[in-house]
Specification:
The protein is α/β, with parallel strands linked by helices. The protein is built from four helices and four strands, in the order βαβαβααβ. A two-stranded parallel sheet has the order 1-2. The model has no long low-confidence stretch (mean pLDDT 78).
């Protein structure tokens, strides 16, 4: 299981907390955790998929503000349209 945390807002503390929780709950599975700080989330995820030969993408979308929702800046929707592998979005 390869996990990629994309750090957009500089909230590294939250990423480390989530990473530790996942590793604890998946203790019987080999978990590799990667972190990337970037503003271009779709590009970071696309590169990760290619470099790790991923067979499925599971997204946990971040919270959007009202402006992002009005302007249609959904990264999840963009990834769904561009992905050549199955995508699962979890709340």
């Amino acid at each position: 299981l390869d996990l990629l945390f994309v750090n957009v807002k500089g909230d590294e503390e939250e990423i480390f907390r989530l990473r530790d929780q996942i590793q604890e709950k998946c203790s019987s599975t080999t978990v590799q955790v990667y972190t990337e700080s970037t503003d271009d989330v779709p590009d970071a995820i696309g590169s990760f998929i290619e470099n790790h030969h991923s067979s499925m993408l599971v997204l946990h979308p971040g919270h959007h503000g009202i402006i992002d929702n009005l302007l249609g800046k959904s990264i999840t929707k963009k990834l769904l349209a561009q992905s050549h592998i199955p995508v699962l979005s979890i709340p």
